[in-house]
Amino acid sequence: MPRARTCAVSTTIWELFKRRVLPIAFICGMAVLIQRTCNGATRTHATIVIDLGESAAVVKKVDAHLVVAGDANAEFHRAALPNLLIGPCQFKVSMPKDDGELTIDVELPNTSKHFVRKIYASDGAVVRVALGPELTE
Fold it and tell me: How does DSSP assign 107-124, residue by residue?
């Protein structure tokens, strides 16, 4: 006695979906996750230069903190030795994103000044932060 074909069409569609479509969807989903993971590891390398201008002769100390995407990324500290100039204030950074917030504290003989700057860097860039005019005020 032959079998009845009551659900042959629905079984065939389900089998096609299960054997052909689901593996392709799984592979595409894994490819997207792998691509996001690999690209998330790319970093922007840059050099930040703090330009003190003519005030460099009187600056006693410079502290800088770089925050990228809400996380502390880099710190810089330079202090002048007694009766000597502070020297160049530059440091290299490796940032997970292209933009960040740089907080700079500068100690002068009679006062301290606090600056906050938004920075944007492309890979290999030199980011110059000019503070000279604001330090002479």
Answer: E-SS-EEEEEEEEE--TT
